[in-house]
Amino acid sequence: MMQKYSLLAPAKINLYLEVVGNRSDGYHELIMILQSIELADRIDIQSTGRPNIQLHCNAVQLGEPSQNLAYKAAQLMCDRFPDQFNHKGGVEITLDKQIPIAAGLAGGSTDAAAVLVGINLLWELGLTQPELQELAAQLGSDVPFCIAGGTAIATGRGECLDPLPSPHGVWVVLGKYQDLEVSTPWAYQTYQKQFSHTYVTDAALIQSRTSHVQSGELVQSIMQHNSIAIAQHLYNDLEKVVLPHHPQVEILRKTFEKSGVMGTMMSGSGPTVFALCETAEQAQKVKEQVSITLNDSNLGLWITQFSTHGISIRPH
Ligand code: C5P
């Protein structure tokens, strides 16, 4: 029996994010198309035999461990499965953060997803993917997607998932100012202040918006693995509040646009901007050109590509 697992927890980008309206639970009704990328955190998790949860991380700025979503994921499993917790003891989690924090890339959510998957393996619970996703939804709106990963339409709070075939060979350049973080609640609250007049709450209208996306050009482009068409149909409502508030992000986006990429968009609530490229060579060129043009040591740039999966066991 394995006592230790090493997992890879991929980040995501939003190919599409539409804010449809308010929900009675205080969240927003969303229509999103989520895409896993290969940029991933590494998570080691092992049973300790001690009655507690320990969390270590290479990134000091993560703060109080018990406030971390990965810790809360372990706590949830201990509460839900007290017999296994009593029998096997707690876990020690080591996070190797590669995904930028508060970036719109679901970094915290994917770490939490990895902890659920890891404890399911360590404690031999035999939970199915839907069962894991049900637990994941209690931790955050993006956590269920992070379990399965790949490509999916997400509705509701973001937890209702409809898988799509994953296009492969699509290259991604990510740009994020290292010292700039955007709070997701801030982005949604600001959007609500400015755009609540556009909100739809009627169930039939929400369904018709969803159908519109399901049969729309972006989904068709994904089904056809047509990366050029995918890049032409990217969309994110939250750009309307984040870009005016952070002009440097707007400039970053414009710089990507001018560097000959297939398409560019802010991911989630930002402030990461991603650009889609046809080849690894093009991605490398775009990265160099943007780096030279903006000449800012605070700007982080990464090259990655679409991934077909969520949490996986790390190959040795
Ligand atoms: O679900 P999660 O904890 O990741 O969401 C973070 C915040 O983002 C929420 O507290 C809320 O302010 C906002 N949010 C929202 N509607 C969603 C998802 C997130 O308003 N569907």
Helix content: 25-40%
Contiguous low-pLDDT stretches (5 residues minimum) are none
- Extended strand count: 12
Taking the sheet with the most strands, its summary is: 8 strands, mixed
Distance between the termini: 18 Å
Shape: globular
Portion in beta strands: 25-35%
Give the topology string: H per helix, E per strand.
EEEHHEHHHEEEHHHHEHHEEHEE
Helix- and strand-based class? alpha+beta
Q: Over all CA atoms, what is the radius of gyration? A: 19 Å
Ligand kinds: cytidine-5'-monophosphate
Number of helices: 12
Can you summarize this structure?
With 316 residues, the protein is an alpha+beta fold.
Walk me through this protein's architecture.
- The protein is of the alpha+beta class and 316 residues long.
- Helices cover 38% and strands 27% of the residues.
- It has 12 helices and 12 strands.
- The protein has helices at residues 69-80, 82-88, 107-122, 129-137, 143-148, 184-195, 203-214, 217-223, 227-232, 239-245, 247-258, 280-294, and strands at residues 4-22, 28-47, 54-57, 91-96, 151-155, 160-164, 171-177, 235-236, 263-266, 273-277, 299-305, 312-313.
- Strand 1 (4-22) and strand 2 (28-47) form a beta hairpin.
- Helix 1 packs parallel to helix 3 and helix 10 crosses helix 11.
- It is globular and about 55 Å long.
- The model has no long low-confidence stretch (mean pLDDT 96).
- The chain binds cytidine-5'-monophosphate.
- Cytidine-5'-monophosphate binds next to strand 2 and helix 6.
- Residues 27-28, 30, 140-142, 157-158, 184-185, 188 line the site of cytidine-5'-monophosphate (C5P).
